[in-house]
């Protein structure tokens, strides 16, 4: 399979659990498939973490067979338009942006997979409940709308736990064709 993974940044696998998890998902996929990673906010990452660190983590991915783009919109657009894709794998609902429309148009055969990492709106709602602040509640609703909208555009959702999968199923009418709890099992 040819897989396009889209994330906000190149995962710095030893700096957060989410990046550690995503790095290993890419590693697992890269063993048997052609994987391209497009980091949407690479320029920000270069400024915030520095060129040396970013290049180090990029080389680690390339060493395990993951091809990393330069993070430019033109790179992503050309990849979507020029090479047949089997799978578009989004690391987070926030990385979906308007990209899914381009994928659906140029690569109608490609399956769209979304990793929840966690169900973010659940955390925002917990904070709003705790603070009883109307601004926190508005933000929680805004995040929930954006997050559920992204999940609704997906063919498959990777939930981090059965609890989060059950929450999503109870919250929305599933439009996706499936969900799973283990990336290893999802991509077999």
Task: Give a verbal description of the structure.
- By secondary structure, the protein is of the alpha/beta class.
- It has one domain: 3-Layer(aba) Sandwich (Rossmann fold).
- It is 53% helix and 16% strand.
- It contains nine helices and seven strands; from the N terminus they run βαβααβαβαβααβαβα.
- Strands 3-2-1-4-5-6-7 form a seven-stranded parallel β-sheet, sandwiched between helices.
- Helix 8 links the parallel strand 6 and strand 7.
- Helix 2 packs across helix 3 and helix 6 runs antiparallel to helix 7.
- It is globular.
Structure summary:
This protein has a single domain, classed as NAD(P)-binding Rossmann-like Domain (Rossmann fold). It is 53% helix and 16% strand.
What's the count of strands?
7
Helix content: 40-55%
Q: Which radius of gyration do the C-alpha atoms yield? A: 17 Å
| Computed structural class | alpha/beta
- Count every helix, treating DSSP H or I runs of 4 or more residues as helices: 9
Biggest β-sheet: strands ordered side by side in the sheet: 3-2-1-4-5-6-7
Domains, number: 1
CATH superfamily membership: NAD(P)-binding Rossmann-like Domain
Q: How does the major sheet shape up?
A: 7 strands, parallel
- What top-tier CATH class fits best? Alpha Beta
Low-confidence stretches: none
SSE order in H/E notation?
A: EHEHHEHEHEHHEHEH
- Shape category: globular
Rounded to the nearest angstrom, the distance between the terminal CA atoms is 11 Å
Q: Please, what is the average pLDDT?
A: 87
């Amino acid at each position: 399979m040819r897989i396009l993974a889209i994330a906000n940044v190149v995962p710095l696998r030893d700096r957060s659990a989410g990046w550690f998890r995503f790095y290993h998902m890419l590693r697992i996929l890269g063993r048997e498939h052609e994987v391209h990673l497009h980091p949407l906010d690479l320029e920000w990452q270069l400024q915030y973490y520095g060129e040396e660190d970013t290049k180090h983590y990029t080389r680690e991915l390339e060493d395990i067979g993951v091809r990393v783009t330069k993070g430019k919109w033109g790179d992503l657009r050309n990849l979507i338009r020029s090479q047949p894709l089997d799978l578009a794998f989004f690391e987070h609902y926030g990385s979906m942006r308007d990209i899914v429309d381009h994928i659906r148009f140029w690569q109608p055969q490609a399956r769209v997979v979304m990793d929840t990492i966690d169900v973010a709106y659940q955390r925002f709602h917990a904070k709003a409940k705790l603070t009883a602040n109307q601004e926190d509640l508005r933000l929680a609703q805004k995040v929930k709308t954006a997050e559920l909208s992204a999940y609704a555009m997906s063919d498959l959702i990777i939930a981090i736990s059965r609890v989060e999968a059950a929450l999503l199923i109870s919250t929305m009418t599933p439009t996706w064709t499936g969900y799973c709890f283990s990336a290893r099992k999802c991509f077999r």
